[in-house]
Amino acid sequence: MAFLPKFDAGGLVTCVTTDAATGDVLMVAHMNDEALRRTVATGEAWYFSRSRNALWRKGESSGQTQRVIEMRTDCDQDAVWLRVEQTGAACHTGRRSCFYRRVERTEADGGARLVFVDADRLFDPDAVYRK
Amino acid sequence: MAFLPKFDAGGLVTCVTTDAATGDVLMVAHMNDEALRRTVATGEAWYFSRSRNALWRKGESSGQTQRVIEMRTDCDQDAVWLRVEQTGAACHTGRRSCFYRRVERTEADGGARLVFVDADRLFDPDAVYRK
């Protein structure tokens, strides 16, 4: 069966990347056709940055690369799921996962606040990205 | 800390929903402000369907509801991660997860095919949705 990704108007699919060992969601990002091809071809995660409008190999600045254990696609082929071995931390803030804050209900109507969880920094982003 | 979701031009954030027991990604969908509020308020997953342009309680047609164990948001608050207890199957095709096909490399340049994995149907969609 052919892999026929269904790109959105911007030429992108959504990518969910999880830690192959724990199942934790590390990040949500986007891929264009070239990022998909390079990821499949090399076994390393490549993404497309909407803010920088550029193809991007995960870890090319930070060294925090992702080795792909498995790639899957969903029922309508507009999303992919990468199970990876993450070197260090996935988040640009230095946390293991971008999802380091829990949404907790504060009001019966659905009002909520954020609570930090698993939020230790594994690297110092100022040092790593030399900002 | 306030939860300040960063909605896209269509008023949506991306939602990744995983099985709280296994860590498997069940589905990727979208939420608008009202879907977020109802999910937080009720502890059941609500989404916004772009194709139907409608708010949607997961399982309202199929009975395959999702009880939220935890909700998190990511570093830029444009995505949420739901860990859920899934009743039956998450996918409209009757599979447990929408991600029932693996992307496998067939060519060195990144060409790929799809291989079915974990693709048993837990319900018959024709019967459940009465199409």
Task: Describe the secondary-structure layout.
The structure is a homodimer of 131-residue chains.
Chain A: E1 13-19, E2 25-31, H1 33-42, E3 46-49, E4 54-57, E5 66-73, E6 79-86, E7 101-105, E8 112-116, H2 125-128
Parallel strand pairs in A: 1-6
Antiparallel strand pairs in A: 1-2, 3-4, 5-6, 7-8
EC number (chains A, B): 3.5.4.19
Binding site for Zn(2+) (chains A, B): 75, 91, 98
Binding site for Mg(2+) (chains A, B): 74, 76, 78
Biggest interface, residues from each chain: A-B, 48 and 48 residues
Mean pLDDT rating of chain A: 95
The amount of helix of chain A comes to 10-25%
What is the name of the CATH superfamily of the domain at 13-93 in chain A? Phosphoribosyl-AMP cyclohydrolase
Largest sheet of chain A: 4 strands, mixed
Give me the Rg of chain A, rounded. Answer: 16 Å
Level-2 CATH architecture of the domain at 13-93 in chain A:
Roll
| CATH-assigned fold name of the domain at 13-93 in chain A | Ubiquitin-like (UB roll)
What's the CATH class label of the domain at 13-93 in chain A? Alpha Beta
**Shape designation of chain A:** globular
Number of helices of chain A: 2
Structural class of chain A: mainly beta
Please mark out the parts of chain A with pLDDT under 50 across 5 or more consecutive residues, or reply none. none
- Residue share in β-strands of chain A: 35-45%
Cα separation of the termini of chain A: 46 Å
Oligomer: homodimer
Helix-strand pattern of chain A: EEHEEEEEEH
According to DSSP, the number of beta strands of chain A is 8
User: Strand order, biggest sheet of chain A?
Assistant: 2-1-6-5
Subcellular location (chains A, B): Cytoplasm
Binding site for Zn(2+) (chains A, B): 75, 91, 98
Pfam families (chains A, B): PRA-CH (PF01502)
EC number (chains A, B): 3.5.4.19
